[in-house]
Design a protein that fits this description.
The structure is a homodimer. Chain A is of the alpha/beta class. Chain A has two domains: 163 residues, HUPs (Rossmann fold, 3-Layer(aba) Sandwich); 94 residues, Pantoate-beta-alanine ligase, C-terminal domain (Pantoate--beta-alanine Ligase, Chain: A,domain 2, 2-Layer Sandwich), CATH 3.30.1300.10. The first copy, chain A, is built from nine helices and nine strands. In chain A, helix 6 packs across helix 7 and helix 8 runs antiparallel to helix 9. Chain A is globular and about 55 Å long. Chains A and B meet through strand 4, helix 6 and helix 7 of A and strand 4, helix 6 and helix 7 of B.
């Protein structure tokens, strides 16, 4: 892979990179199309990264379909699909991790303590292999985007990190490989997340700036749906620091994580 | 700095890099000369990295003499001396750290808990700025060398990390900027470290393979000198894992840290 990249670099091709865990959907495709527009070469990685999963999380059942991923990448004229093995990425004796402090202790990081350590470590490795000029991440994983931007800046990496809009199903559910886990009924309940975020945004536009009021409204809308098992968090945060705000301002982010049945879904909206 | 490096890379120059904390001595110069031999361009960085010092360590009094460093680099025909400011390396809001687990919990890491986290973080930053083909480190800081090699391998960095022999004063004391702290009497006591390591190596060559016996001999030689305040550790370790060995083999490393007066000195020898 490194020698292929060296050839591209030698011939001054710009490289756009879309790191994924595979099971590609319209969200990923929007990233690929964005990368196609802005770069000579587009590389997609498919790697289900074990070290970003917690012990009781869904690593084993995480959906995989590399054949379909290859077809989609071919259709989108992706130049390279990089699909490394676990033992290539984490050979015996692997010991090095990258930690972005502070930003990773809030929101999802509070409930998934080693998740972002796994994300930043694998992304740094992939960046060092692929050497992208630009890398594309969906805003659905908003905290991930902020954490990766921080890492790139702090470690003086050369890649420009670009966040792309959330792509949603017709019923408003944010595209995610994990939506596959949902039964038909759960899927209906899942649509509550986006509905609640839109409701809160409307209330904010109409003048409501108290985060507690907005959070309560979100909570009560979501809890009305039958398959909601647990709201893990609803937070309204500053888009850069990810710290909860006391008064809501334009540009702040409402982020939430909700268990619909056994499936943990996240979503967010920019105010 | 990055744009200068880009020009070198575009014109296919190989880059040799010697990262230092300045106050350059013969040890550093041997690294520079090694880099000169093997690369088109040689870059030396001088940066006293605060995040690798503990709270009660010698950050404030660490010796500095940038004028002399510049003169030495000019004399050695170093192409670039990179001397960044603290606020350039760690701007407000800096949050990202690199940790090499396991290898950093033994030897010096046991007594300097965040030291190697600071070292790997700054070295990764410098590597991302300078993009060296080869980087040169002295074997005096043997654990540092092993830790950096591990980081480079684990994170798929492109730099080849090269360890160079310890350079010693006439009395056997390993070259170190911290030798400046020593009074004349302390300096005599400091020579015990190398003497003890050589004694142990001789005993090993004559057939002694019990690490406890070798460590005892080292200890009793060192403690005979008046200015020895404390032996922090004496360990005989595998050169790759840095784990203590049960039977000493050729290639193992004896490493030690000793307080001579208030000055902490380290040294090691390869068997």
């Amino acid at each position: 892979m490194k020698s292929i990249i060296k050839n591209y670099k030698d011939s001054k091709k710009s490289i756009g990179f879309v790191p994924t865990m595979g099971y590609l959907h319209e969200g990923h495709i929007s990233l690929i199309r964005c990368a196609k527009k802005e770069n000579d070469i587009v590389i997609v990685s498919v790697f289900v990264n074990p070290i970003q999963f917690g012990k009781n999380e869904d690593l084993d059942r995480y959906p995989r379909n590399i054949k379909k991923d290859i077809q989609l990448c071919e259709k989108e004229k992706v130049d390279i699909l990089f699909n490394p093995l676990y033992k290539e990425m984490y050979p015996k004796g692997f010991k090095t991790y990258i930690v972005v402090e502070d930003l990773t202790s809030t929101l999802c990081g509070r409930y998934r303590p080693n998740h972002f350590k796994g994300v930043t470590t694998v992304v740094a490795k992939l960046f060092n292999i692929v050497k992208p000029d630009r890398a594309y991440f969906g805003k659905k994983d908003y905290q991930q985007l902020v954490v990766i931007k921080q890492m790139v800046q702090d470690l003086n990496m050369d890649t420009q990190v670009i966040g792309c809009p959330i792509i949603r199903e017709k019923d408003g559910v944010a595209m995610s490989s994990r939506n596959k886990y949902l039964s038909k009924e759960e899927r209906t309940s899942a649509s509550a997340l986006n509905k609640a975020l839109l409701l809160a945004k409307n209330l904010f536009i109409k003048g409501q700036t108290d985060p507690q009021v907005l959070k309560k409204e979100i909570q009560s809308l979501i809890m009305r749906y039958p398959k909601i098992k647990e709201i893990q968090y609803i937070e309204i945060v500053n888009p850069k620091t990810l710290k909860p705000v006391k008064t809501v301002k334009k540009g702040d982010i409402i982020a939430l994580a909700v268990f619909v049945g056994e499936t943990r879904l996240i979503d967010n909206i920019e105010l």
